[in-house]
């Protein structure tokens, strides 16, 4: 500092600005200097260590891991939450509770929320508080062998019970028997009404299906021949009925897209805010693919999954 007076002014300016919340114009009047002089005093106070900053990591989120993971996966936002449990179901429940608070905080009155399905989303829905008045729309048809509690229609109804908005259920199977029957179903009045809402959906919460083991409800619903074709094509993940390769590119496999009753890839991409919730180190490849696809804007996961993704 040039003098004791300058040091005093810098300290006063920095304290009034950062601690008291005073404007630079008000500080300038108090010190009888220009606003530009105040800006220089504050900058000098920071540079010389007169005032320092401590950023404390808030409870319930690992900030550094979240930032590193977002940069690594090249998605706009990642939220990494610590989970204490070891058992998969307990981890899923802990993550679901954290994700539920995030989703609730994103929603505003008058918006439309899209939901896919899965065990992780079941954990999210179970933990949701009362929500703003939003409409909820089912993004994929039902799977006959999917447990009812994790099925898309049940999840949409459960979310609808927490908001004063309307729940739009898709009364159709995820996969029709033939392309012709799929066209007939899509044209049915109630189904067409739900499908028509996809283009104006404001936010979506989706699961990520992993094609390793039994990590994808979609894969298990497909005929054996279509499963083999998907495996041969290099499918590692699904979001709704969008099939993804390891690099995130979308794969078109005959026997699926022309028979599916669900949100299309183009409609998914048109949703301005898509949150994916995923847990499990064995899903790392699938999560990477989903993030690389450009469909996902926000990933919510736990610290063990994050470590696997970073590794």
UniProtKB/TrEMBL annotation:
Record keyword rRNA-binding present: no
Cited Gene3D superfamilies: 3.40.50.1360, Winged helix-like DNA-binding domain superfamily/Winged helix DNA-binding domain
Domain Sugar-binding, chain residue ranges per copy: 64-310
Superkingdom to which the source organism belongs: Bacteria
Keyword annotations from UniProtKB, A to Z: DNA-binding, Transcription, Transcription regulation
SUPFAM superfamilies for this protein: NagB/RpiA/CoA transferase-like
Keyword Cell membrane appears in the UniProt entry: no
Family membership noted in the UniProt record: Belongs to the SorC transcriptional regulatory family.
Protein name as it appears in the record: Sugar-binding domain-containing protein
Origin species: Kineococcus endophyticus
